[in-house]
Amino acid sequence: MESEETQGFETTNVAANILCEFLEVAIHLILYMREIYPAEIFEKRKKYNVPVQMSCHPELNQYIQNVLHSIKPCLEKGEVERISVVVTDKEFCPLERFVFEIETPPEFSSLRLE
Question: Of 22, 41, 74, 82, which sits most exposed with the smallest number of CB within 10 A?
Answer without folding.
Answer: 82
